[in-house]
Amino acid sequence: MKSGAVPTVFIIDDDRGMRQAIQDLVESVGLRAESFATGEEFLRRQRSGSPSCLVLDVRLPHMNGLDFQRLLAETGVYIPIIFITAHGDIPMSVRALKSGAVEFLTKPFRDQDLLDAIHLAVQRDSAALEQRAGIHDLQVRYQALTAREREVLALVVGGMPNKQIADEIGASEATVKIHRGHMMQKMQAGSVVELVRMADKLKLSGSR
Q: How confident is residue 179, by pLDDT bands cut at 50, 70 and 90?
C-alpha cells in the first residue's frame, strides 16, 4: 500500500438508503467511500492506484451482481468483491465465492461483519497491487536487456554453466561472462537463485 494511501470502498446498490448507510459506516472507521446506483456508473469511474474493494448488491437493474462480477473479470478489472443481498440462497453464494468473492452477506447483516469483510478485502487488494507493481518492475528490467542478454538469461535459468552457454550461442566464455554480468546487473539479481525466482515471476523459466 502506498504510504498514507487511504483505501476506498466502492458501493453499488440501487437502494439509496442502503448506499448511504454503508457509506456512513465505512467513513466512520476512517476509510473513503464512493457509492453508485448501477454497475455502469462504477465502470465510468477511474480507479486510483490505492487499495480498494467493492460492496456489491446481487439484485441490480440491467445486470445482476453475479453477472457484473463476471464482466469485471472478463474486462480485466481486478477488485475484491463483497456481495450483499436480501434474496440470497446457497447456490448463489457458492457461485459468488467460487468466482473469487471475499464474502456473501445476507441483509440484514451486522455492521461488524461487513467491516471485517472490508478489512480482509482491502488487505487482499493491497497485496495484489504490490505483487503487480513488483512484476511490472521486473518487466521493465527485462525490457532493458539486449537480445543476447535475454538469451544468456534463459540459458542461465536453465542451469547451463558459462562454458556450455558459450558453445550454445557461439561465443567465447569471456564474452559470455561479460553478457552475464551485464544481465545480472540490469536485472538487479544478487544470485542465480534470485534470478530464477525473477524468471519464474515473469514466466520465463525454461524459455529461450
A: very high
